[in-house]
Amino acid sequence: AISYRRRPTTSRRRRLPPGSSGFPIIGETLHLFLPSTDFDLIPFLKSRLRRYGPVFTTNLFGKQIAVSADSELNHFLLHRDQPLIETWHTDTSAGLFGDVDINLASVHKYVRFATLRSFGVQELRERRLPEMERRVHVALRDWSERGSVEVKYATATMVLNYGAKLVFGYDPQHYSKKKLVDLYSSITKSLISIPLKIPGTTHYKCLKEKEKAVKLIRKEFRKRQASFFSTKERSKGDDLLDHAIRELNDGEKPYSLSLTEDFIVNFIFALNFVSHDTIANIMTLAVKLIEDHPLVLEELVAEHEAILKARESSSVGISWDEYKSMTFTLQVINETLRLGNLGPGILRRAVQDIHTNRYTIPEGCGILIAISAMHLNPDTYKDPLTFNPWRWSRVSPSDRMYKDLMPFGWGMKQCAGSEYARLFVATFLHVLVTKYTWKRIKGGNLRRNPLLIFDQGLHVKFNEKEITQQPPSN
Ligand code: HEM
């Protein structure tokens, strides 16, 4: 077992984890871009873990990084968080999202609080479900009327339009210029790109798209700010922006944070991004995986038809209790999240020397908490590359399988949108399997660059199910 100390033992003074640093400056960065086969770990992680064991050092993007696939160490680090470690970004994502410094305690608390106020369990339970389900119905009906649909783009549109509505009242019909989803789609493409602000580079184009998205959000901010002062009546609006504007103008300083226009606009920009791309990826993966596993589809259909059958005729849509009773669906979602691994892991930086009984991770060193490697560890998950939702039946929260499943992170900074994400995917699957069938037309091949992408997209034909006439009962 690993143990932790405040100071290094003299015999093991500052022993770094094993590893290699590659070429000067670029280090081993290029290895990151060697693609994986399907769901497997990227070859770079796989080969280094085999060579050095679960904790090793490398040099990526010109920075020294300790990579940990060690369950115990990762739980410890995420549990302790500050003052031991802090959130960290690559220069590329810092350029994009850096205006919101999540390491400041006041910023972190406000971001969490404001996200949960719009997307937390209480809101989901009391208000969000009917509208969420309605939007899924409308989207699927629309897709079924088309020849073929690219699922990632289609789900991203559905999820972003709903999320952005909750955040700043976005309605795509009111915007004639480029749609928000298209701006964000181009940003996704360059999340891992070399951060050169030179015209023509991917990163440069991406920053330009960010400016357009920010402009659109800022325009809405200023419109509401003006009406806050011009109308005598207090706005009763309650999207995230309405709350922020009231807090700003009332000088409330939530969590001692002085809100500013720039902070609010940039926070909304970042939240729109994290709240849709992730969910759209998981929905797309689920569509692919379920089609590839007919027994999974069969059990899903059975679960959801049973829900419809048991439902009182007066209720119109999914209830919270029904969602919580979707045992198999939640297993399918867990398994999709485990295999899906949208990125290699979570980035942190050591704020002070971290001594374990084996190594020291030095102050300033980046830390990649390699969640993807934990999710595909054969010692924890038998046949880790197999999509097997049944592996989650009868797993209790104290089991290692359960503890090591951390697609949403773990500890103090665990994802504030995790329940919203699960609920959205469950609602989508409910409507999909009860009312539609689907067939892949083309695409569906995965690659990690090292973030998960569908090379040619996933093109699917959706068809509405023929409703079989029930014989009249006597
Ligand atoms: C499948 C979907 C999602 C995945 C896999 C995911 C993953 C993650 C992960 C791994 C973290 C932790 C990062 C860290 O520890 O540094 C995180 C944090 C966060 N996520 Fe998500 N996320 C998802 C959906 C969402 C959604 C839908 C929202 C908003 C509605 C959201 C909002 C946030 C926020 C605000 C944080 C920061 C929390 C904090 O620092 O306290 N995420 N997410």
Write the layout of secondary structure elements.
Layout: E1 4-5, H1 43-52, E2 55-60, E3 63-68, H2 71-80, E4 85-87, H3 91-97, H4 105-119, H5 121-144, E5 149-150, H6 151-168, H7 180-189, H8 202-230, H9 240-249, H10 261-292, H11 294-310, H12 320-324, H13 327-340, E6 346-350, E7 354-356, E8 360-361, E9 366-369, H14 371-375, H15 400-403, H16 418-435, E10 436-443, E11 446-448, E12 452-454, E13 458-464
Parallel strand pairs: 3-9
Antiparallel strand pairs: 1-7, 2-3, 4-6, 5-13, 6-9, 7-8, 10-13, 11-12
This protein binds protoporphyrin IX containing FE (HEM).
Describe the structure in brief.
Helices cover 48% and strands 11% of the residues.
Dominant shape: globular
Cα separation of the termini: 68 Å
In DSSP terms (H or I, runs of 4 or more residues), the helix count works out at: 16
Radius of gyration: 23 Å
CATH third-level topology of the largest domain:
Cytochrome p450
- Which segments are poorly predicted (pLDDT under 50) over 5 or more consecutive residues? none
Would you list the SSEs in sequence order as H and E?
Answer: EHEEHEHHHEHHHHHHHHEEEEHHHEEEE
Query: Could you say which structural class the secondary elements and strand pairing correspond to?
Result: alpha+beta
Major pleated sheet: 5 strands, mixed
Overall domain count? 2
Overall strand count:
13
Helix content percent band: 40-55%
Q: What is bound: which ligands? A: protoporphyrin IX containing FE
Gross CATH architecture of the largest domain: Orthogonal Bundle
